[in-house]
C-alpha cells in the first residue's frame, strides 16, 4: 500500500465532504446528549453523597450496595438492560430516555463517590463553625461543606465528566444517532474509514481544551499541597 492509498483510505477529502452533513448532525446530538447525562449524573452523585453523611446503617448499607452495584455493572450492559428490559415491565422508553436512565445510575454512582470523598476531606470543624452561626445541619452542609468539597475534588469531577462525554458513544447500541453512530453509518455506505477518523478529530477538538484545563487544575492542586 502506498502513502496515497493510505490517505485515500483514512483521510479522503471527497469522502469527508459527502459524510460531513450526517457527522455534523451526530456531533450536535452528542452535545445534546452530554448536556442531558452530565447534569443528571452529577445530581445523582450529589444525592448519594448527601445520603452518605447520614449515620443510620439502614441508609448507609443499602447506599453502599447501590453504589457498588452500578459501579460494577458495565455501562453498555446497563444501557441494553434498561432499553430492552423496561418494556417487559410495561414501560416503553425512547433511546434518549434509556440513555438518560442508564447514565444517571452509572455515572451518578461515580460522581457520588467522588463527592463523598470531597465531603470527608473537609475538616469537621467547618461544620461545627457553621452550626455555631445558627445554620442547621442541612444548611451547613449545603452552604459551607459541599462548596469546599467540590473545590477539593474538582479535578476528579472534571476527569469523570470527560469520561462521561466519551462514554456517550455507547448510545449507538440503542440506535441513538450520536457522533460515532453517524460515523459508522457513513463508513458502511462509503466503505472508507475517513468518517471514523473525522469523528476522532471532532472528539479531540471538543475535549482537548477540557483536558488542558484539567492538567492546570491538577498542577495547581499539587502545588498547593507543597
From TrEMBL:
<protein>
    <submittedName>
        <fullName>Amino acid ABC transporter permease</fullName>
    </submittedName>
</protein>
<dbReference type="InterPro" id="IPR010065">
    <property type="entry name" value="AA_ABC_transptr_permease_3TM"/>
</dbReference>
<keyword id="KW-1133">Transmembrane helix</keyword>
<keyword id="KW-0813">Transport</keyword>
<feature type="transmembrane region" description="Helical">
    <location>
        <begin position="63"/>
        <end position="86"/>
    </location>
</feature>
<keyword id="KW-0029">Amino-acid transport</keyword>
<dbReference type="InterPro" id="IPR043429">
    <property type="entry name" value="ArtM/GltK/GlnP/TcyL/YhdX-like"/>
</dbReference>
<keyword id="KW-0472">Membrane</keyword>
<keyword id="KW-1003">Cell membrane</keyword>
<dbReference type="InterPro" id="IPR000515">
    <property type="entry name" value="MetI-like"/>
</dbReference>
<feature type="transmembrane region" description="Helical">
    <location>
        <begin position="196"/>
        <end position="215"/>
    </location>
</feature>
<comment type="function">
    <text>Part of the binding-protein-dependent transport system for glutamine; probably responsible for the translocation of the substrate across the membrane.</text>
</comment>
<keyword id="KW-0812">Transmembrane</keyword>
<comment type="similarity">
    <text>Belongs to the binding-protein-dependent transport system permease family. HisMQ subfamily.</text>
</comment>
<feature type="transmembrane region" description="Helical">
    <location>
        <begin position="22"/>
        <end position="51"/>
    </location>
</feature>
<feature type="domain" description="ABC transmembrane type-1">
    <location>
        <begin position="27"/>
        <end position="215"/>
    </location>
</feature>
<dbReference type="Pfam" id="PF00528">
    <property type="entry name" value="BPD_transp_1"/>
</dbReference>
<dbReference type="InterPro" id="IPR035906">
    <property type="entry name" value="MetI-like_sf"/>
</dbReference>
Amino acid at each position: 500500500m502506498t502513502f496515497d492509498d493510505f490517505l485515500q483510505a483514512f483521510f479522503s477529502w471527497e469522502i469527508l465532504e459527502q459524510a460531513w452533513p450526517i457527522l455534523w448532525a451526530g456531533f450536535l446530538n452528542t452535545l445534546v446528549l452530554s448536556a442531558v447525562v452530565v447534569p443528571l449524573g452529577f445530581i445523582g452523585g450529589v444525592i448519594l453523597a448527601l445520603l452518605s453523611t447520614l449515620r443510620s446503617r439502614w441508609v448507609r448499607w443499602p447506599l453502599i450496595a447501590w453504589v457498588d452495584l452500578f459501579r460494577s455493572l458495565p455501562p453498555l450492559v446497563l444501557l441494553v438492560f434498561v432499553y430492552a428490559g423496561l418494556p417487559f415491565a410495561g414501560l416503553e422508553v425512547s433511546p434518549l430516555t434509556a440513555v438518560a436512565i442508564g447514565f444517571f445510575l452509572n455515572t451518578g454512582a461515580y460522581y457520588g463517590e467522588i463527592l463523598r470523598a470531597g465531603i470527608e476531606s473537609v475538616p469537621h470543624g467547618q461544620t461545627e463553625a457553621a452550626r455555631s452561626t445558627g445554620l442547621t445541619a442541612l444548611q451547613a452542609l449545603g452552604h459551607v461543606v459541599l462548596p469546599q468539597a467540590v473545590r477539593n475534588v474538582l479535578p476528579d469531577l472534571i476527569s469523570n465528566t470527560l469520561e462521561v462525554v466519551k462514554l456517550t458513544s455507547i448510545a449507538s447500541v440503542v440506535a441513538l444517532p450520536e457522533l460515532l453512530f453517524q460515523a459508522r453509518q457513513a463508513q458502511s455506505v462509503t466503505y472508507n474509514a475517513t468518517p471514523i477518523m473525522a469523528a476522532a478529530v471532532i472528539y479531540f477538538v471538543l475535549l482537548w481544551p477540557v483536558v488542558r484545563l484539567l492538567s492546570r487544575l491538577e498542577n495547581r492542586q499539587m502545588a498547593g499541597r507543597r
